[in-house]
Specification:
153 residues; mainly alpha; 76% helix; elongated
């Protein structure tokens, strides 16, 4: 594994530098190797290891860009709907969303950030629409409680 990383890290780093966000290359490269290790058993050998690894790196970067875009849209929505001059930074939004249960966060992000309808989110999450509605409601309540707690400090 050490030799694989030594031989491929420069090209993976370059790809992550081009496709990822500036300053986040190290995390993207690390995530690439973590995903590669987790899926090593499914590598069939149809393509060279380098191509397989670069494909993983491309997916890691794409996921990263999508996540950052969702965060920006969420900050924009919060800012538009906030009557004060308060502008949350991306890190504080991430911290708030990280506090949600994974199912609640997914339902909240799909409907409130990505803009899917409840029907579309239910289909994507493979659960009833009522489940999506309750998860979003619980996520909103948890976020509101967290913001109120932060304001009280």
């Amino acid at each position: 594994m050490r030799e694989l990383v030594t031989r491929t890290q420069p090209i993976v780093w370059r790809l992550c530098s081009v496709l990822g966000s500036p300053g986040e290359e190290e995390d993207l490269v690390q995530e690439t190797y973590l995903r590669a290790l987790r899926s090593l058993g499914s590598y069939r050998g149809d393509a060279p290891v380098r191509s397989w690894l670069l494909s993983i790196a491309r997916h890691v970067c794409a996921d990263h860009v999508r996540r950052r875009n969702r965060q920006r849209r969420l900050v924009d929505r919060i800012t538009r709907n906030t009557p004060t001059d308060f502008r949350p930074d991306t890190e504080s939004v991430d911290e708030l969303l990280d506090r949600l249960l994974p199912d609640q966060r997914e339902a909240f992000e799909l409907t409130q950030v990505v803009g899917l309808s409840y029907d579309e989110a239910a289909e994507l999450m493979q659960c009833p629409i009522g489940t999506v509605r309750s998860r979003v409601a619980r996520a909103r309540a948890a976020l509101l409680d967290a913001v109120r707690a932060a304001d009280a400090v």
